[in-house]
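Can anyone check this?
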Amino acid sequence: MTTPARTVQITLDCPDPHALALFWAAALGYQLEPPPPGHASWEDALEAFGVPPERRNDRSAVVDPAGQGPRLFFQRSEGPVPSGRRVHLDVRAAPGLLDEERMAALEAECRRLQALGARLVERHEPSPPLERGHLVLSDPAGHVFCLD
């Protein structure tokens, strides 16, 4: 008997789940997860569920509007994120491009993400045949990711 394919969600600990969800929605072309059926907004749903106002930013999520990419889930975590719980994402920002054209596309995407609050950490130049070059960034909460 074979095991059926599973879907995954990527979870990130952060101090402000809603703000980080907005960042990643804009960065990836995702959208905030819609509220449950029967609720006009998450605020309405959380009120109906009895969640106190001070706990309404404990969680947030974004989803791929086309339903193909993984769900990203953000949960409140105060203080530094333990090193064993960090997540690394590769954002495929220059598929099929090589050399200077590739790095120019990555730089352009980097500038766009920096305007959203990302920070450039380091640049890795192309070194053929194996290394095509990439940029390492961090999101507004300090999670490291690559533009690849």
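Reply from J.R.: I decoded it. The chain has three helices and eight strands.
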